[in-house]
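User: Run a structure prediction on this.
Assistant: Running it now.
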Amino acid sequence: FFNSLTLWPNYLRDYHPFIQFAKEHRIPVLASNVPRKYANLVSSFGLEALFKVRSIFLPPKYLVRTFSQEDYETKIKNALKEHPGMNLSANAEKKFVDAQYLWDAGMADSIANAFLTKGRKVIHINGRFHSDEGFGVVYRLRKLGFKILSISMFPLKEDNIVPTEILKGCDFTVITERRKKEN
């Protein structure tokens, strides 16, 4: 099964234990990401290329840019600049931002649908960029009127200092002991 998927590099370490726990306890699991091929399509050709695609795995297309955030876009662009060789044109940056918005819109739409159709509380686990500082998925769900409790978890830095920037924008911050990376 795993060979047929393109998993995040940290999937087995950081996400799979949650899936196993849910499976063992018969807790429903919702895959909330849009398929990577659609995010890649947007980052390569722009959001307009997505309008030709029909898929049950995509959020309504009008939602992708509906909850845009200037500070979030700045954060995305700054993150891009931190990567060597990522000197992108303004047009390429816009495509990348729209791809990020697509990820967020897809997750928020999946969560909203699960809550509204099943009447269940949802625990959503995502990479921190999608929710830090109240951006991304958290922002979208709050704008839609959902009550969100945001918990961010971080391993302690090697110097045992907790950076203050990780403390803003979430309801709770959990700092864990840093484990040595397993090879």
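Residues 149-183 form one domain.
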